[in-house]
Fold:
Amino acid sequence: NAGVTQTPKFQVLKTGQSMTLQCAQDMNHEYMSWYRQDPGMGLRLIHYSVGAGITDQGEVPNGYNVSRSTTEDFPLRLLSAAPSQTSVYFCATLIQGDLYVGYTFGSGTRLTVV
Amino acid sequence: AQSVTQPDIHITVSEGASLELRCNYSYGATPYLFWYVQSPGQGLQLLLKYFSGDTLVQGIKGFEAEFKRSQSSFNLRKPSVHWSDAAEYFCAVGAMEYGNKLVFGAGTILRVKS
Structure:
């Protein structure tokens, strides 16, 4: 059971390049989300999904696209990278019940845009 | 809008001294609350969480937190700090009424003096 797997762990892009950050989970959680972490700002929600085929914007969605074709995968796409997108990106899933709620975070992707 | 405030950006305590990290939130719904710890270059580790029930919550590594609804606070405490506790600490709040979107505070960096 791998939990939440993010790839790659590190990436350097040139301004204007595109790339996809991968997030995969093997827990069958319906809810998945992407956050970015910047110094002094905590983690901010980029996009989230409550199930296959359903996505919505978070606090800082501009410059990012997502899709959710399967329960397992929730890729984050940067269509034209900008230096302002230099950050650490975390994917997270959620499971909740009547008496329980829990988020599982991936180990992060450190992205540098030059 | 939902928000989480961690008033202290940096805190320095002596090893063996007690610790309290503050967290205040603004939410229009019944929240669930988390404290996470992050060492440099690492991912997020869950220290403890409050979902319902007893408002004093025990976590890992000797940490505890108390949910005070009247004060909209969820402060993290530890009676005796160890040098290995030096890290960044994040408070996070979510609510089912707001789509389970987790909102993070900006973080508090803890330095431990020997």
Remarks:
- The first strand of chain A starts at residue 4 and ends at 7.
- Chain A has no helices and eleven strands.
- Chain A has a mean pLDDT of 95.
